[in-house]
Amino acid sequence: MYYTENILLMKRKLSFLKYCENVPSVKKNNYMMMKVGARLFDRFSHKVGGMFSYATYSIINGDCARAFSTGQGGDADVCLTHVDQHGKAKMVDISGKNITERVATASGRVWLGGKAFDLLKENKLSKGDVLTVSEVAGILAAKNTSNLIPLCHNIPLSKISVTLKLDEDTKSVMVEATAKTTGLTGVEMEALVAVSVASLTVYDMCKAVTHDITIADIKLTHKSGGKSDFNQ
Prior knowledge:
Radius of gyration: 21 Å
Distance between the termini: 43 Å
Structural class: alpha+beta
Strand order of the largest sheet: 2-3-1-4-5
Helix content: 40-55%
Oligomer: single chain
Shape: globular
Number of strands: 5
Strand content: 15-25%
Number of helices: 9
């Protein structure tokens, strides 16, 4: 049964890629689009419902960037900006962009469980003040984003704020970070890195009590000042 399913899946994949060869928007950047198309097929074809049909729709309409990142449709010209015409990674040239005030906010959550949460709340963990240390760690991380993410630009930040709030009902910590700059490109990566490292710091300072800690829901919630705004 498993062997038969694999044969059928391969036939569908070949048919899908053959169909893409005759679509104008795919021909525009054939190598990269076909490569992304194959990856999307592999990623989504095992899902039930409309996932396979959406993967097909995304590639045919050139919507490869949003297909990977948000699952939403978009303009036909949207594509992966960090990949050149040969499929190799590249750093984006932002010299032609406008200098504007750019803001980005990201959030995440750390589920601690009852014991670790109560100790954190009472500031009785052996490593000390978890919330303050984690906030500082997030700020430090945001300032070093270009050293952590290879193709990010080194952005002079106007402001980075990181806040951690306790959620008694879920025994979790809500993490939020906002980054600001006046420049040529956005700061969503800085906000996301700040949330990620702040969350990891919470884990590090609580792991002596329990390893049953979950970091989840790290996402961009706001972006403004660039070509397009985003709010969630």
